[in-house]
Amino acid sequence: MHPSEEIFCEKSSRLRGKTIVLGITGSIAATGCFSVIRELVRHGAKVIPVMTQAGARLAAPEAVEFAAGVRPITELTGQTEHVTHLGDPSAADLFIVYPATANTISKMAHGIDDTPVTSMAVIALGGKIPVAVAPAMHEQMLDNPAVANSLKTLADWGVHVIGPHRDGARARAASKDEIASWAVKLLSRNDLAGRRILVIGGRSEEPIDSMRMITNRSTGQMALALAKRAFERGADVELWMGGCNVTLPGFLKTRRFSAVSDLVGMVDGIDHDIVIMPAALADFTPAEKSEGKIPSDKPFDLNLRPVPKVLPMVRERCRNVIGFKAEAGLTLADLEKKARDRMEEYDLRAVVANDVDDAGRSTSSVILVTKGQSKNITGTKIEVSDEILNHCAEMI
């Protein structure tokens, strides 16, 4: 067994049965192609690497072969590799150039065919194979009018431009997670395409003093899973996240909040088709915040006042709202009743109910309560997210 087979579908099977041709060009970001290849394999893809000479100088072909389990194509032969892999819709499913240099982008936009990668591009652009490029270059190169026009030309042709992310003087290439999410997005159902979805997640953090706070148990895992899956299913996604224990990807439009009052100030900006709200928000906040740190060597009194309920404010701004209800120690029947009461009280489209002991776990067990029925869902955060988003797709 090749080592690449050991990680096959390790994270998911969302790309199982899909073949992705990955063009590797001469940006220093080519050193990251190993991680990108292995991330795609972990989601079930077969990856066929194709390298320019400049790319092969930065990423050793032997190492690329180890990552993919497939010998990279570094030159075209009598086997017509470009035609074999991309010349027929029944061949590869997707062509991605990662990283895409200014040189390769400009050649693709002008039909120049002088490297294995640009030969692949000519065939893919002339056929019906989805094409994506992930630019990586110095910022001034990206701002060069010729390069900017070439990217616009490719976008006008239907090429998907992934990133880049500006970071000082660099235009940094997309991360492996972003490439994988785009691959899933381009190769799976897009039943949420054209829909604007807002996910509000994480925990509120109400300050007691400069050190201490009142908060709830929430890692933000469910909110992030919902946002990523909605993105992969074609939605225009925005994520509002409070305190969390997850890394937030740069490719999702994200706004942060801390206290409930911060979130209240953001509500007027809601104009989305659907709002999904797994946030764990406080019901109370200190009546006053102490400056500095309260001494810990003697007791002190803490006076609390209730904070505004955000869910009804959100409902006023959007008719399609899915709320969450977390309880502890209830039977399934009682948990469902609590969720249904919440749904009817705030006129929600659905409520997802769970036990707080699930917080922070990689898997979840929830009840999806809708007006007509309830459904028990158990699985990973991604699997639970998909069931919730299935309801969203049906709802709209």
Detail the topology: elements first, then pairings.
Blueprint lengths: L2 H4 L12 E6 L8 H10 L3 E6 L1 H6 L2 H8 L12 H6 L7 E7 L1 H8 L6 H11 L4 E5 L1 E2 H4 L2 H12 L3 E2 L3 E3 L2 E3 L3 H12 L8 E6 L3 E3 L5 E3 L5 H12 L3 E6 L11 E4 L3 H5 L9 E4 L6 E3 L17 E3 L3 H8 L3 E7 L4 H15 L3 E6 L7 E8 L3 E7 H15 L1
Parallel strand pairs: 1-2, 1-3, 3-4, 4-6, 9-12, 9-14, 12-13, 14-17, 17-18
Antiparallel strand pairs: 5-8, 7-8, 10-11, 15-16, 18-19, 19-20
Helix pairs in contact: 2-4, 2-10, 6-9, 10-11, 11-15
Describe the structure.
This protein has 396 residues and is α/β, with parallel strands linked by helices. The protein contains 15 helices and 20 strands. Helix 14 (332-346) links the parallel strand 17 (321-327) and strand 18. The radius of gyration is 24 Å and the shape is elongated. The two termini are 46 Å apart. The model has no long low-confidence stretch (mean pLDDT 93).
Classification by helices and strands: alpha/beta
How many strand units? 20
How far apart lie the N and C ends?
46 Å
- Biggest sheet statistics: 8 strands, mixed
Q: What is the 3D shape?
A: elongated
Low-confidence segments, given as residue ranges, are none
Helix proportion range: 25-40%
Taking strands numbered 1, 2, ... along the chain, how are they ordered across the largest sheet? 13-12-9-14-17-18-19-20
Chain-averaged pLDDT: 93
> What integer value in Å does the Rg equal?
24 Å
**Percentage of residues in DSSP E strands:** 15-25%
- What oligomerization state is this entry in? single chain
Number of helices: 15
What attributes characterize this protein structure?
about 400 residues; alpha/beta; eight-stranded mixed beta sheet; five-stranded parallel beta sheet; 15 helices
